[in-house]
Specification:
The protein is an alpha+beta fold. Helix content is about 30%, strand content about 30%. The protein has helices spanning about 25-35, 35-40, 50-65, 115-130, 145-150; strands at about 10-15, 15-20, 70-75, 80-95, 100-105, 135-140, 155, 170-175. The protein starts with 11 loop residues before the first strand and ends with a strand.
Length: about 180
């Protein structure tokens, strides 16, 4: 039975973070994050070239949420009162209790446990509110910190499936 309704965006407060919906006032921060060369060195994606494209990305996040296919959270540090990263369920398939998860964090905040705190919160929501039974993460085989994070949260390398778009990605799977 479906518990969560896609009419109201799910927001969370953790010990040090607020996970909330992106808004158009975030366009500069999301531009900086999604165009960061260090973050993107192991990610293949289109990066915004200007603030209009960042705004377009935010609009896409709204549209995909309305279609029940994506929940994209801005990660806000309560200590720094700024957007420091993002975490997302995308390719949500409620019929099959499946979603993919992705995340990124400003390199200035790496190693402080922010992403682990975010991931724990979002995974709990996915399991208990979205009733997901399978969550997959696609990560570059050289992204050691991402792999360590996934393994810390009980994701396992899933070799039966390959990323059709990015040959260097490996798929990690969490099943409930």
């Amino acid at each position: 039975m479906q518990q969560f309704s896609f009419h109201l965006f799910p927001e969370f407060t953790t010990e040090r973070l607020i996970l909330r919906q992106l808004n158009f006032a975030d366009k500069k921060a999301i531009f900086r994050l999604r165009s960061n060369k260090e973050i993107n060195k192991l990610i293949e994606r289109e990066t915004p070239k200007n603030l209009n494209q960042a705004e377009g990305f935010i609009q896409t996040c709204y549209d995909e949420f309305e279609k029940q296919r994506r929940i994209f959270w801005a990660i806000i540090s309560t200590d720094y009162n700024q957007l420091i990263g993002s975490i997302v369920f995308h390719n949500i398939d409620l019929e099959n209790n499946y979603a993919e998860i992705g995340y990124e964090l400003d390199p200035d905040y790496h190693g402080e446990g922010f992403m682990s705190e975010s991931l724990e919160t979002v995974l709990d929501f996915g399991k208990n509110e979205l009733n997901l039974t399978t969550i997959e993460a696609f990560t570059h085989y050289n992204n050691t910190p991402s792999i360590a994070l996934l393994e810390k949260h009980q994701f396992e390398l899933y070799t039966e499936k390959k990323d059709e778009k990015v040959a260097d990605n490996r798929i990690y799977r969490l099943s409930f």
